Structures are given as structure tokens and as C-alpha cells.
Amino acid sequence: MSLLTVSNLTKRYPRGGKSIAAVDDVSFHIDPGETLALAGPSGSGKSTIARLVLRLIEPDAGRIEFEDNDFLALSGASLRARRARLQTVFQDPLAAFNPRATVARVLDDPLRIHGIASRSERPRRIAALLERVGLAAELASRAIHEISGGQRQRVAIARAIATKPSLIVLDEAVSALDVSVRGQILHLLLDLQRQERIAYLFISHDLGVVRAVAHRVILLDAGRIAESGDARAVIDAPRSAIGKALLAAAPRLHRTRP
Ligand SMILES: Nc1ncnc2c1ncn2[C@@H]1O[C@H](COP(=O)(O)OP(=O)(O)OP(=O)(O)O)[C@@H](O)[C@H]1O
Ligand SMILES: [Mg+2]
């Protein structure tokens, strides 16, 4: 049984008096514990799909089933409960969090909002989350703007796993990090996936990273699926025009490893 099933998803935006499909009749599924990557040129619809799956925006057409629920039909308490199982890590945690908030505060929020731990239990849970993502417990009292980009992305991952999600949407989550930090964060993600069987919808314009971490990949072109399949098979020998163009633009591909 698949974890997430997206069927015929379409999202249109007005442009110049007309409407263009940012996402055009897209269907895919993700199995438990699997990494599905979305790749494609800028403007091909990757982030729009992420926002639709997270229900930050509503589609014009299509269905999203998540953990056997009609996800688009959920509202109120049932939506909140299901949202705990579907988390996200964005590219820039400095923009996603209040930069003056402490690390403890950022991690306390999901535990409190989703009723996961009592007030007295939460400091211990926060320390355990920090340890889980390879950060010292002392970091809890620091402000978000005082820690490094790599540490911030680890805090964002700690926050995402606080509610025990089955799926995490990662939209260019490692793209802003320098190569060595990126490798460490990718290792952490793979480790979490192995241990907790978390699935990832992994969005990246970097085919080398996609090849290294994803099981399957979908290549998007102007909102439509151009090609999909086993990540290594597709990236090593793309059949679509957009796949060939993306590969040609990634000269250092085979040297990129997490
Ligand atoms: N809120 C919006 N209003 C109007 N058009 C939008 C909006 N959001 C996205 N679009 C358009 O939808 C298309 C897909 O955008 P999207 O952000 O999903 O692309 P992307 O693949 O994530 O690109 P990038 O690699 O640059 O992040 C683009 O043409 C974009 O201009
Ligand atoms: Mg994007």
C-alpha cells in the first residue's frame, strides 16, 4: 500500500490575461520508507507540487491520498492530526523560523501543538531530538540566528521528526549548504530513513545528489512529467529531451557523493 498517492494534480496560475498550468496532470506515488525525487529546470513546477502535497495551496484538480485518507477533504482536527505525519524542511530555515527564537522554542512548538509531550517532559524530549540530529544539548538555549547554516538545517530536521512523520517533503533542503556540510546532512537523512522508515519527497536541481539519495526520480518539464523511473537508470541514461539537457548541464555529476 503506498503512503502517498497523487492523481492528476493540476494547479493553474494567471499570467498575462491567460492561465498557465504550473502543475499539469501529474500523478505519482511514494511507498513507505522510499525517497522519490522531483527534478527539473527552474519553473518546472517542483515547489508547486511540494506546496500542494503540504496543502499550503489547493489544486484546481486532482486527488491526494495520504495514509489512506482523502487528504484534500480533511479539515480541522483531522487535518491537524494528519499533518503531524507529513512534515517539511525548506531550503532556508532562517526564513522559516523566527531568527530570534531559541532552538528550544523551535523544537518545543511541535511537541506542544501536537500534544506529544507534557510541559515537564519536553526539555528531555528536546535534548533527545538534538542528540538524534547530531547536535549538543547545550545548543537548546542558543538563538536560531546565532547558529551555523548546517546546525540550523539539523534543527529544522529535528523539528520535522518531532511529530514522528511518515513523509518529509524536502524542497532544496541541502542546496544552500557547502559541499561538506551537505554531505553530512544527506547522511543524517539517510540514517533517519533507515532507522525510522521515513519517506522523502526530495526536491533538488542537483542530479548528482538525486542520484546518490533517491530510489526513484520524476523529471518535470513545464509542469508535466517528462520521464520517471529508477533514479540511477534515469540519470545515467535519460530518454527525454529535458533529461538529456539536465545531464549535459551537470558535468561533475559522477563526482558528487553525499
Ligand atoms: N504564487 C504564484 N503565482 C503565480 N505563478 C506562480 C506562483 N507560484 C509559482 N508560479 C509559477 O509556476 C511555475 C512553477 O513554479 P515552481 O516554483 O513550482 O517551480 P520550481 O520547479 O520549484 O522552480 P525552481 O527550481 O526555480 O525552484 C513557474 O512558472 C512559476 O512562475
Ligand atoms: Mg522551487
UniProtKB/TrEMBL annotation:
UniProt keyword annotations, A-Z: ATP-binding, Nucleotide-binding, Transport
SUPFAM superfamilies cross-referenced by the UniProt entry: P-loop containing nucleoside triphosphate hydrolases
UniProt xrefs under PROSITE patterns: ABC_TRANSPORTER_1, ABC_TRANSPORTER_2
GO biological process per UniProt: transmembrane transport
InterPro entries from the UniProt entry: AAA+_ATPase (IPR003593), ABC_transp_ATP-bind (IPR050319), ABC_transporter-like_ATP-bd (IPR003439), ABC_transporter-like_CS (IPR017871), P-loop_NTPase (IPR027417)
Coiled coil (residue ranges): none
Domain ABC transporter, residue spans: 4-247
Molecular-function GO terms, alphabetical: ATP binding; ATP hydrolysis activity
PANTHER family named among the record's database cross-references: D,D-DIPEPTIDE TRANSPORT ATP-BINDING PROTEIN DDPF-RELATED (PTHR43776:SF7), TRANSPORT ATP-BINDING PROTEIN (PTHR43776)
Family affiliation: Belongs to the ABC transporter superfamily.
Protein name: Peptide/nickel transport system ATP-binding protein
